[in-house]
Amino acid sequence: MHNIKISKEKRKEYIPVILCLILFLGLLIMPTGYEGAVIYKGTDRCAARVLSVNNDRIIDTGLVRSGEQTCQVKFLGGKFKGKVASGYNTLNGSLEADKIFQKGDKALVVIDFNGSNILSVNMIDHYRLNKELILAVAFVIFLILVAGKTGARAILSFAITVLMIWKVLVPAYLNGYNPIYVGLLITLFIIMVVITLVYGFDRKAVSAISGSALGMLVTCILGIIFTKQFLIHGAIMNNSESLLYSGYENLNLTKIFMASIFIGSSGAVMDLAVDITSAVNEVVSKKPDISWKEAAISGFNVGRAAMGTMTTTLLLAYSGGYIALLMVFMAQGTPIYNILNYKYVSAEIIETIVGSFGLVSVGPFTALTSGYLLTRKKNECTQVENDLKQQDSSFL
Predict the structure, then answer these.
(1) What is 176-392's CATH number?
(2) SS3 for the chain, per residue?
(3) Ranges of the chain whose pLDDT falls below 70
(4) pTM, 2 dp
């Protein structure tokens, strides 16, 4: 009996990992449908070493630089590896988007060619892929050293999340599917994958998933309501307006913005649901005879403590990229009531407060479900043990 119990526990632990590995491989080879974008047909991409630069056509106007920089580059890979050609770096007067190359720099270039003839070389940006890979590998190693098997599962769930967004969510939005329905389904699927990797196929997983789903649903409904009430257009999202001028004028940017609200807060919602479920499970394991009401109250108490920090986490996550804008407001002496009324500030308020509503709602619901499900499991086990004892005593 003991060996059977161990094998069942191992199956609960490893089956989700195997299924997620299959899902990961499937997503990895799945095409997005946009690999052959017209803009990159007939081109080759590779790294190139900058041999020399010519800045004669660059015009300096204070901090702003415009014009064109010409670079002699040597291709380090691709179809024309080893060849030298002239590359062009166009400056548009934007410190945010422009880049300046120096001799010896490594750049990512796009080569426009016809047969064996190089037509033009576009200097995309400094080459960072190798350094990004080093950073990612270092993080993977560090996480596995610290967290062991749990860290490896976290990496797998992270990879699946990235692929789900890139291979499923983004193409579905571009194809015109309803952003809210698609966002809800994909986010819920990601939550199920991540939590089952943590808990396996267990009642703890059911509790955490149900709590996360409720919090996400609350965030979704409130996001839709207040986006309409605040008269926020989806073009408030960075670079979203350019989609309308790129042949996707039928996209509903406002619904995409609504979906981004609950997608952005789903990580914090899931984190809180897992924290409460784990806390209740620990209480039940230490005190098997605890009632489900007492276990739920313990979950409530854990949720209250976590909510205070998680809401601040959302605020910092959403507002971290707006520090420069806040500095501009202060430097110009903009009144606070003007600031709060701007649509991009109102959009941040919606994301922060509506996301916090989801966090607050996930706490009590997860406490109730985990208290009921986890104590029920213990009670069933206790009942089985009592039945076995009675059978043994009657036999004797």
Answers:
(1) 1.20.1640
(2) CHHHHHHHHHHHHHHHHHHHHHHHHHHHHCCCCCCCCHHHCCEEEEEEEEEEEECCCEEEECCEEEEEEEEEEEECCCCCCCCEEEEEEEEECCCCCCCCCCCCCEEEEEEEEECCEEEEEEEEEECCHHHHHHHHHHHHHHHHHHHCHHHHHHHHHHHHHHHHHHHHHHHHHHCCCCHHHHHHHHHHHHHHHHHHHHHCCCHHHHHHHHHHHHHHHHHHHHHHHHHHHCCCCHHHCCCCHHHHCCCCCCCCHHHHHHHHHHHHHHHHHHHHHHHHHHHHHHHHHHCCCCCHHHHHHHHHHHHHHHHHHHHHHHHHHHHHHHHHHHHHHHHHCCCHHHHHHCHHHHHHHHHHHHHHHHHHHHHHHHHHHHHHHHHHHHHHHHHHHHHHHHHHHHHC
(3) 1-13, 36-41, 377-396
(4) 0.83
